[in-house]
Amino acid sequence: MTGELPAIRVTTPGDLIEAVPYLLGFHPSESLVVIGFDDVVGTARQVSITARLDAGPDGVEQAAVESLVTVLKRSGTCAVAAVLLSEQLAADPRRSGWVRGMLSVLSAELDRGGLRLLDALAADRSRWWSLCCQNLSCCPPDGTARDAAGSTVAAEATYAGLVAMPDRQALLTALDGASEAIRAALLPALRRADTRFADLLARIGPSRTRRNEHAAVLRAAAECEAGTQLSPRRLTRLGAALRDTEIRDAIWLAVDDRSLPAGQLLGQLHSRLPPPYQAAPLFLFGWQLWRAGSGTLAAAAAERALRADPGYSAAGLLLEAVEAGMDPRQTPPLAGSVRPA
């Protein structure tokens, strides 16, 4: 199965503001959201990256903006739109000192990085303004009313399967699962599963063992997509199998090329297994999220995988990819066999 990243059309500044929660995966507050676009194709621009910084009357940290511009350049961004979302906007934000100061910092860093600022918008829950437009006939001092109901963005995002959680913390709860005590109760069974795997390696050989366990993971993925809840016995068998790097890498390749729908399986594994066994499913789940364009959640999954197993290098690679602003659309697919030898 192959698939493209979901797309939503944005034709007006108001549309862009309504699209921000779907680009991030959550509704930001007191935030400066920077949306990077790649090369122009006709009159259309393609989003290459979306990033958020804390922002408010205290301004925005220049060092954070500098780092952000570095990430934008690495991602292949050529032009940028900025959206300030705040409930602390008073009257016309174009006359606000802290808003002008924030725009000045952003503009200077973008100029230094050779990136074009297409527009900078400011919005609260009911109104929006263009900070770059001084024409009062099209950008009045009282702002332009936000019309989420009249925008097609929410409908297109929903049709594309995109979800915007109420806030960042609500987004991260997607990675939560069983309590620490419930997870720890599986440790004796997981140790038995490790012993079983080692015994199979010695008795029937590495190739046959890995083929059998890889096949077990594939069967479980199909069953989980159909709604099956894994038993503790299967859960521990698969958790032990995915600690083997060859089996993990075979699943990684299949997740990367979207030939394996594994979201439900990986969700069950990472939400129920204890450390360090949850590291592999968390990493694979995060990689799938990154390929689907959900960088915020992918980074959080990679961070949790590293907490579960600080030496888990694959999770470190995923985190580096997200933090460097690598575009999953432009990053070449992984190469190799999808079955262990």
Question: What does this molecule look like?
Answer:
The longest helix is centred in the middle third of the chain and has 20 residues, at 206-225. The chain is an alpha+beta fold. The protein contains 14 helices and six strands. The protein has two domains: 13-164, Cytidine Deaminase, domain 2 (3-Layer(aba) Sandwich), CATH 3.40.140; 174-323, Serine Threonine Protein Phosphatase 5, Tetratricopeptide repeat (Alpha Horseshoe). Strands 2-1-3-4-5-6 form a six-stranded mixed sheet, with helices on both faces.
Summarize the topology.
Layout: H1 13-24, E1 31-37, E2 47-54, H2 62-74, E3 79-85, H3 97-112, E4 116-123, E5 127-130, E6 144-145, H4 153-159, H5 168-172, H6 180-184, H7 187-204, H8 206-225, H9 232-241, H10 245-256, H11 263-272, H12 279-291, H13 295-308, H14 313-323
Parallel strand pairs: 3-4
Antiparallel strand pairs: 1-2, 1-3, 4-5, 5-6
Helix pairs in contact: 2-3, 7-8, 7-9, 8-9, 8-10, 8-11, 10-12, 11-12, 12-13, 12-14, 13-14
